[in-house]
């Protein structure tokens, strides 16, 4: 696969790391206005760093656009004359609709909107994909790419904003939960690095339990909750303080905000 990542910033670099780790690309162009900060990537033989988007597009089949939303329209207009029939355009850009992309490059192009998260860099992204009508023919190819970076799921475009909150912003939400658990552990007397390790591995174990057992979270909660014991004491206090409610409210606020952001 000959891939170009147009705009190798935070997310673009996460995707690049995952693709390189899994050796799924024969060539990987990474573009950025100033490539100095991504110099380390050219240790890989298959990587070409450039600030020339045209060069990257001419030499690649799969184009992953990962710039900030305000830059996409201009870039698409500039590179449009270079787009060939077989190019697959993947946009990871928040809120930039398939209609809008089609209006610039044409509905006859393979276009897939994708919402990965930064865990792509460690092969654990949850990526949601929505193709345009033509792009449906290439959705399996997109799944191959994003399954190499974690898990992928095809969803209707109308749900992509919600998926952004749950999966992309979700990384930040889970980080804060892990951090808060760490702070609790420090208060109980653990050194900060030990507390962090305990919190991380317990979080990883909880998610793995659900994935491998297929059981409901409440079933797993019941398994650790001794009647009259310390788990239910802590859990009930967390709920009195609004744990579930604050998460749900936060997710809804995040969703309101994403729907207000205009590109
Ligand atoms: N950070 C995240 O977890 C997620 C971000 N997104 C979306 O991905 C997109 C990128 O986000 P980030 O990586 O966080 O942004 P970023 O600002 O870190 O990266 C964008 C990169 O594009 C480069 N760039 C700007 N103009 C360019 C041009 N003309 N040609 C080539 N490169 C150019 C910039 O130098 C920058 O390195 C955004 O649209 C965001 O909404 C989506 C999901 C998750
Ligand atoms: O915070 C944001 O608006 C973007 C979209 C999802 C992750 N980062």
* Strand content bin: 15-25%
- What's the Cα radius of gyration? 21 Å
What is the CATH class designation of the largest domain? Alpha Beta
The name CATH uses for the topology of the largest domain is Rossmann fold
How do the helices and strands follow one another from N- to C-terminus?
A: EHEEHEHEHEEHEHHHHH
End-to-end separation: 31 Å
Q: What overall form do the CA principal axes indicate? A: elongated
User: How much is the average pLDDT?
Assistant: 95
Q: What hetero molecules are in the model?
A: 1,4-dihydronicotinamide adenine dinucleotide, (2S)-3,4-dihydro-2H-pyrrole-2-carboxylic acid
pLDDT below 50 for ≥5 consecutive residues: which ranges? none
Q: Would you report the number of β strands? A: 8
Helix content: 40-55%
Please identify which CATH superfamily of the largest domain we are dealing with. Answer: NAD(P)-binding Rossmann-like Domain
Structural class: alpha/beta
Oligomeric state of this protein: single chain
* CATH level-two architecture of the largest domain: 3-Layer(aba) Sandwich
């Amino acid at each position: 696969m000959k891939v170009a990542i147009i705009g190798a910033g935070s997310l673009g670099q996460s995707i690049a790391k995952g693709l390189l780790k899994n050796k799924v690309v024969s060539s990987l162009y990474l573009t950025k206005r100033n490539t100095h900060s991504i110099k380390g990537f050219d240790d890989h033989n298959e990587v070409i760093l450039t600030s020339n988007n045209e060069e990257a597009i001419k030499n690649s089949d799969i184009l992953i656009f990962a710039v900030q939303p305000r830059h996409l329209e201009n870039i698409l207009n500039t590179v449009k004359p270079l787009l060939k029939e077989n190019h697959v355009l993947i946009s990871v850009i928040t809120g930039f609709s398939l209609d809008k992309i089609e209006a610039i490059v044409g509905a006859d192009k393979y276009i897939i909107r994708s919402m990965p998260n930064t865990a792509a860099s460690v092969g654990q992204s949850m990526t949601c994909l929505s193709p345009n009508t033509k792009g449906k023919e290439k959705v399996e190819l997109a799944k191959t790419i994003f399954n190499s970076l974690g898990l992928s799921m095809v969803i209707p475009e109308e749900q992509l904003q919600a998926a952004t909150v749950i999966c992309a912003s979700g990384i930040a939400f889970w980080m804060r939960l892990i951090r808060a658990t760490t702070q609790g552990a420090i208060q109980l007397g653990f050194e900060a690095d030990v507390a962090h390790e305990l919190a991380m591995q317990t979080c990883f174990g909880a998610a793995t339990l659900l994935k491998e057992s297929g059981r409901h979270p409440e079933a797993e909660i019941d398994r650790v909750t001794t009647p009259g014991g310390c788990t239910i004491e802590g859990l009930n206090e967390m709920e009195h303080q609004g744990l579930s409610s604050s998460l749900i409210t936060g997710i809804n606020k995040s969703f309101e905000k994403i729907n207000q952001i205009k590109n």
